[in-house]
């Protein structure tokens, strides 16, 4: 259940970033306010996942999924660069999250 909470927190974190982008630097108030609510919800879900999961792994996975998710949405939906070097480094973030998860299951 904790991993489901963590994945949900990460998905909401992605939504938060997209809403803050849509706020256009707070020129549009409603997306910004919804982004703040999403950020609070993400932290709430993360806090509940931390009841069970190791803090270092949970936080790294939460930020990693958020970072990779926002980067991929930027590439797919917002026309941001998909340069090979950028994709390589996104892959390194994914490899780090997988590595942490594998190490935690062995401990």
Automatic annotation (TrEMBL):
Keywords: Cell membrane, Membrane, Transmembrane, Transmembrane helix, Transport
InterPro entries attached to this UniProt entry: EmrE-like, Small_drug/metabolite_transptr, Small_multidrug_res
Name used for this protein in its record: Guanidinium exporter
Membrane disposition: Multi-pass membrane protein
Upper classification of the organism: Bacteria, Pseudomonadati, Pseudomonadota, Betaproteobacteria, Burkholderiales
Transmembrane segments: 27-47, 59-79, 85-103
Recorded GO CC terms: plasma membrane
GO molecular function: transmembrane transporter activity
Keyword Transmembrane: yes
Subcellular localization(s) per the UniProt record: Cell membrane
Similarity-based family: Belongs to the drug/metabolite transporter (DMT) superfamily. Small multidrug resistance (SMR) (TC 2.A.7.1) family. Gdx/SugE subfamily.
């Amino acid at each position: 259940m904790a991993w489901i909470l963590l994945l949900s927190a990460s998905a909401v974190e992605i939504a938060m970033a997209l809403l803050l982008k849509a706020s256009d630097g707070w020129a549009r108030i409603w997306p910004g306010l919804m982004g703040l609510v999403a950020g609070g919800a993400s932290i709430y879900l993360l806090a509940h996942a931390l009841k069970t999961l190791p803090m270092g792994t949970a936080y790294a996975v939460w930020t990693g999924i958020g970072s990779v998710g926002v980067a991929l949405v930027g590439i797919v939906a917002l026309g941001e660069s998909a340069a090979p070097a950028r994709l390589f480094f996104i892959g390194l973030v994914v490899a780090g999250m997988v590595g942490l998860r594998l190490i935690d299951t062995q401990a």
